[in-house]
Amino acid sequence: xxxxxxxxxxxxxxxxxxxxxxxxxxxxxxxxxxxxxxxxxxxxxxxxxxxxxxxxxxxxxxxxxxxxxxxxxxxxxxxxxxxxxxxxxxxxxxxxxxxxxxxxxxxxxxxxxxxxxxxxxxxxxxxxxxxxxxxxxxxxxxxxxxxxxxxxxxxxxxxxxxxxxxxxxxxxxxxxxxxxxxxxxxxxxxxxxxxxxxxxxxxxxxxxxxxxxxxxxxxxxxxxxxxxxxxxxxxxxxxxxxxxxxxxxxxxxxxxxxxxxxxxx
Length: 265
Ligand SMILES: C[S@@+](CC[C@H](N)C(=O)[O-])C[C@H]1O[C@@H](n2cnc3c(N)ncnc32)[C@H](O)[C@@H]1O
What we know:
Blueprint: H1 10-18, H2 23-37, E1 46-50, H3 56-63, E2 68-73, H4 76-89, E3 96-100, H5 106-110, E4 115-121, H6 130-139, E5 141-152, H7 158-168, H8 173-195, H9 208-217, H10 226-235, E6 238-244, E7 252-259
Parallel strand pairs: 1-2, 1-4, 2-3, 4-5
Antiparallel strand pairs: 5-7, 6-7
């Protein structure tokens, strides 16, 4: 029998984070989408958010004018949280929907059709099979459509974090609390030393403490360098348009790509 993989339950953390969502966080989420895709990129477009978490970026895409938005997450609590956030923050939530689905389920994913923009921030490395997840995500992009993925950077400490995350998901809730208690100042200090900025000042509408829990607990965990990801994206038929390197060495590199579509004739 194979090893039972302990999986972090992201949904509970997203439900807790959602209590802090306000206009400012939604505005920051919109700014981060504009940084990646440019001003006006969402108008009339279909948008797929793989691993939607709290639904914040699905909501932001809808507010930026996307014609239809679908958010997927493997965790049912994330799906329910995203639904209730969309109902709260969107004036007409009819063009947005959420479903519980794994990006690894190729058959179900194929039935969704294709989208003008596919967005998956900090997700594919948590599936347990990043290569398959990337291929399945790429297949949901319409011809000439855009794919944005954010993947943890490879760093000398990545293997150490993998062990910490593995342990976190095998101990009881009290030991988990102690681990968070020990690691929070370590993460705070490391972030401050690398960026010289206040670690509480987050981007993308995120929040420091929920991010610490997401980071320490997030398992399965894979990572790749910018060169490795660029090659993998080219391999599945994408042209890399832009890359935004992670602000901290173990953070997520963001890749913006266009699907290469062979011209007829
Ligand atoms: C780090 S969170 C990122 C959430 C969101 N994309 C964001 O940027 O705020 C990762 C999310 O991916 C989801 N996830 C993990 N494995 C998945 C899979 N196989 N299919 C779909 N979603 C998955 C988790 O439940 C979690 O909500």
